[in-house]
Amino acid sequence: MMQTGFDIEPYLQVLTRYWGYTSFKPLQEDIIRSVAEGRDTLGLMPTGGGKSLTFQVPALTNEGICLVITPLIALMKDQVNRLNSLEIKSLAIHSGMNAEEIDNALENAIYGDYKFLYVSPERISTRIFQGKASRLNLSLVAIDEAHCISQWGYDFRPSYLKIVTLRDHISDKVPFLALTASATPQVIDDIMSKLAFREKNVLRTSFERKNISYLLRKVEDKGTYLINTLQKAKGSGIVYVRSRKRCKEVAELLVSNGINADFYHAGLSVELRDKKQSSWTTGEIRVIVSTNAFGMGIDKSEVRFVIHWDIPDSIENYFQESGRAGRDNLPASAVMLYSPADKSRLLDTIRKKFPPVEKIKDVYEAICNFLQVPLGSGKDNVFDFNMSEFVSKYRLPVIETYNSLQFLQREGYMEFTEEINNPSRVHFIVSRDDLYKFQVANESFDGFIKLLLRSYTGMFSEFVPINEETLAKKSAASRNTVYQYLVKLASFNIIRFIPGKKTALVIFTEERLMRKALLISPDNYLHVKEKYEIRLNKMIEYAESENRCRSAFLLNYFGEESDRCGICDICRERNELDLSKYEFDLILEEIKSFLSENSPDPEELVKVINHPEDKVIKVIRWLFDHNKIEQDKDYRLKWKL
Question: Of 44, 91, 567, 599, which one has the fewest beta carbons inside 10 Å?
Fold first, then answer.
């Protein structure tokens, strides 16, 4: 690793060569400098801040391979494909791969000239990975979504706690770079502690987005409001909803009212999701209505609005989703639609999110039986998992089952991945000379083998994703004919062929236990529930706040102090009073202090507050309008608690 005497020039050359930029954003350069000096580093960068460049550029500038740990398999595949398209050799290891593929990938990472190895966190603690980790010539370990390591965070994953064991298998000169888009001060400290940072080292940029106007709209008829707003608004944007059903309904409502819209959720095929996202990114579709599945890998800077039809369950989620607006630094809006019924619906998620402990154990036993896992076995085994077939067979409620799985994951018994699409993979296991002999002796396979070799590269050294439909079109044959060729070549031990599949996965991180040995700690259960309730109530507080700048509220949650933004709905109302923030706050505090001990009528109150009368009257009217003060039957004022 490079030490002090840091020279940014080689890093700039890499940045320009591969990404076409001529300069770094300020925080990017600070992080790169830090890891180049061999320091463990925590980088806090908001959504769209260019996190990936902070490890990709150093890895390409220095010798060795960069290990990237991320729980998002789809994002992992996307980044590997992008890097390989830039002729930067990269590979991935995740739970959708079999043992032979994983072993092959690790051997390539050790002996090949690869620059990036992406790994899902649950693979880190496996024997096969830890047995070969010491042979990797690592330059850097990058941990994406680093907040997942903290039990105080909103997306805790026990597999992240195993990342620190890497330090026992690699050189102590290899720095750790932890990255996240959002973290509270408590989570920041937890990340550095759990990853055994050699020193506290946090580099962050302000979360403030000065170009985003945060707006809260209290509306009963959200559909009418949305139609009217989007008919007036310019540019493209995202409408977030909580359910797949509503996702489609809202999109159809917009289309029927002349708004160019489409819907997107995780239940759609990968091909259809890619097509919809591409149509929105290129501007063919103006508005995308989506669940929170939409967001990963979005590369569109000119998003003018993000509208939340439903209130999210945490400030972290809201901040990340709303932050997809205005990445071009031009004015943009983040609008939350809120109705009285939303609060009760949101609070009801607590009941759904936390099934009774015995129900969680029921789901655990049912999964073990469904997957035919005997007692005392299953550790590190990966199983395809069809959720709809499972809940149907055991007559289980879907939401309760899903949340039970999340709790079993949080307790460290198993990992559960959302549905992933694994294409077919092919790896030639004979030498080129032996393959040529086979082609000469088996003329009927010669044309197909040549087609494979023309269409894809690297198949002699690793498993390479292929597309049977593409091969069928190129060869003017049916998809089934292509499939049969692949199966036969595999039977002749010419290739290893892994047929593609689309499935969710369950990974047992511990062996199957007897029910009475399955510990769901009551204290931990209540602790997690309490933290969730705190995050939920903070979100409700944001939605119901009527006198605090929206931007300042969000920034304070993440440990930042800020003046009011001047452009949110709260600030706009105050701006109409023609008072500075200082004047308004000063008068408000004097009124609040006086009313805590006295009950004057309005005329008396105006006289005792030592400010110009017209300004005091404006603040009193504002407090009335926002239900902060009230009068009794004798017209005496009091501050509402």
Answer: 599
Q: Does residue 87 contact residue 112 with C-beta atoms inside 8 Å?
A: no
Token pair 């759990």: residue? 194
Q: C-alpha distances in angstroms, 573 versus 547, 567, 595? A: 9, 9, 23
Residue 609 to residue 594: CA distance in whole angstroms = 9
User: CB count, 10 Å around CB of 375?
Assistant: 11
pTM exceeds 0.85 for this model? no
Q: Residue with structure tokens 């060795």?
A: 64
Query: In the chain, what are the helix, strand and coil shares in percent, each to the nearest 5?
Result: 50, 15, 35
Task: Return the closest-CA partner of residue 133 out of 148, 117, 147, 146.
Answer: 117
CA dihedral of 522, 526, 527, 531, whole degrees rounded to 10: 160
Amino acid in position 19: W
Q: Which of 118, 105, 168 is nearest to 144 (CA)?
A: 118
Q: What is the rounded CA–CA span in Å between residue 228 and residue 253?
A: 12
Q: Which of 416, 347, 376, 343 is nearest to 95 (CA)?
A: 416
- Residues 6 or more apart whose CB falls under 8 angstroms from that of 520 comprise 357, 360, 361, 407, 411
Q: Is residue 320 part of a domain?
A: yes
Q: Which has the closest alpha carbon to 465: 494, 432, 500, 503?
A: 500
Which secondary-structure segment (H or E) carries 461?
none
Select the highest-mean-pLDDT range: 126-130, 352-356, 549-553: 549-553
Q: What are 307's strand-pairing partners?
A: 239, 335
Residue among 240, 228, 260, 251 nearest 334 (CA): 240
Q: Which domain holds residue 582?
A: 577-639
Question: Beta strand pairing status for 501-508 and 414-422?
Answer: antiparallel
Alpha-carbon distance 612 to 609, whole Å? 8
Longest dimension (CA), the chain: 106
503 and 419 Cβ atoms separated by less than 8 Å = yes
On whether both 464 and 588 belong to a single domain, the answer is no
What CATH number corresponds to the domain at position 387?
1.10.10.10
If you write DSSP's letter for every residue of 189-235 in order, what string do you get?
Answer: HHHHHHTT-SS--EEE-----TTEEEEEEE-S-HHHHHHHHHHH--S
**Cβ partners under 8 Å of residue 401, min gap 6:** 363, 387, 390, 391
Q: Is 497 helix (H, G, I), strand (E, B) or coil?
A: strand
Place of tokens 């049916």: 478
pLDDT, one tens digit per residue, over 550-589 is: 999 999 998 888 888 889 998 888 776 777 777 888 888 8
What's the chain's length in residues?
641
What local confidence, expressed as pLDDT, does residue 634 receive? 80
Q: Give the pLDDT confidence of 215-263 residue by residue, as tens digits.
A: 999 998 999 999 999 999 889 999 999 888 999 999 999 999 999 999 9
pLDDT of residue 636: 87
CATH, residue 66: 3.40.50.300
Residue 256 sits at the vertex; the CA angle it makes with 262 and 322, to the nearest 5 degrees, is: 40
Phi, psi of 326 (to 5 degrees): 60, 35
Mean pLDDT is highest, among 93-97, 140-144, 474-478, for 140-144
What is the per-residue pLDDT across 592-622, written as a single tens digit (0 to 9) for each? 888 888 888 888 888 888 888 888 888 888 8
Q: Do both 263 and 217 map to the same domain?
A: yes
Cα 528 from Cα 224, distance rounded (Å): 38
Structural domain contains residue 570: no
Q: Does the pLDDT at position 12 exceed 90?
A: yes
Spacing of C-alpha 73 from chain mean position: 11
